[in-house]
Amino acid sequence: MTILAILAIVAIASFATVLLIWLGDPLLVWAVASVHSRPLVEAARDSKSQRRSVSVILATRDSEELIRARIANLFDSAHPAQLVQIVVALDCEGARCSREQLVEGGIDSRVVVVNGDPPGGKAGALNAAVRIARGDILVMADSAQRFDRETIPQLVAALGDPRFGAVSGALVLGGAANSPVHRYWAMEKWLRFNESMIHSSIGVTGAVYAIRRELWPVVPEGTLLDDVFVPMSLVMAGHRVGFRYEARAWDVRAFDANAESVRKTRTLTGVLQLRSLIPGLLSPSKNPVWAQFVAHKLLRLTTPLFMAIGAVSAAMLFVLLLARADAVVQIAFAVVVAVMFLIPAIRVRLLSAIRWGWSMQKATTNAAYNGIRSRWQVWSR
């Protein structure tokens, strides 16, 4: 077998593995869900479950202005106003406003403001908020997004199905709809929906999900990925986790490659942290969605390795083929490359794709390195 053949096989096998991880798994989950579906059965809107009390938990470090705007949005809900309580939990580590500022500035009587548990972090803020929440259903929200009027009722209706302990809503991003992060989230929501049709969504969207209050697991201090820790804790305890497209949270922020790389490093590091937070998570006999968890969360961490092997092999193959080509082919290739970089529209798209691809592989590699070193102090605003 020639060196060219070996390089071609290695490149094809590496890229095919990446495609199987990112496309093969979602398609397999969809196929299984199509023939073995156990969908969530929502309660009727006029049923007793829709008259259940709700505590909206807003754990935040943000400014007073942003918090007040978010509170107004949360009260603008189709769920009965007298059944909605809002608990604002201020992260005591680096909060940009104080409890006194919010209270003294005037606040609705249905809003309770608490300081998060020391030493700080989102886990401490969530736990402090849940302790004083009085609603039957806890709805989790973040400061940067906005809910539809139907978001809370949709989540409550979904939890009318007693098989489900939690249900995730759908994050809708603003900005250019064709960006890599938009395409990723479109696929992610589709995958989570199909996972929930089989058993449970692997993770929820932290900006919009609901859980029965009595099922809330105390989130350990320093947890990086509470929106996977909480649902997987429920799954390990015998409950299911659903997904509702109709329960939407709108996020109008712009997402660039660098910011997304920082966020992705944290979330992927959090995936690896879970193995020490949830005993039995990686055991097929204890985790009823073990295969889905491994495929959805762990195999994706191998992407940089296969991409690097494929890219190096493909580059070597191309260089060898180009070196053996005649002068006309070499000149034609140089002209094509030059034209691509001289046309602004093509150049911008090409450089953007390279920047996004590099940022995501860098984030995954950093997360794997953090996991190997058990380095969990990676939170960054």
Describe it.
It is a single chain. With 381 residues, the chain is an alpha/beta fold. Helices cover 52% and strands 14% of the residues. The chain is built from 12 helices and 8 strands. Strands 3-2-1-4-7-6-8-5 form an 8-stranded mixed β-sheet, sandwiched between helices. β1, α2 and β2 form a beta-alpha-beta unit. α1 packs across α6, α1 packs antiparallel against α10 and α10 crosses α12.
What keyword list fits this structure?
alpha/beta, 8 strands, eight-stranded mixed beta sheet, 381 residues, globular
- Would you list the SSEs in sequence order as H and E? HEHEHEHEEHEHEHEHHHHH
* Tally of DSSP helical segments: 12
Anisotropy-based shape: globular
Counted beta strands: 8
Q: Separation of termini?
A: 52 Å
Which secondary-structure class do the elements indicate? alpha/beta
Estimate the strand proportion: 5-15%
Round the mean pLDDT to the nearest integer and report it. Answer: 88
As laid out across the biggest beta sheet, the strand order is 3-2-1-4-7-6-8-5
Largest sheet: 8 strands, mixed
Give a short summary of the structure.
This protein is of the alpha/beta class and 381 residues long. It has helices spanning 3-35, 64-75, 99-104, 122-132, 151-158, 180-198, 226-236, 257-277, 290-298, 303-324, 327-342, 344-373; strands at 54-60, 84-90, 111-115, 137-141, 146-147, 164-173, 208-212, 240-251.
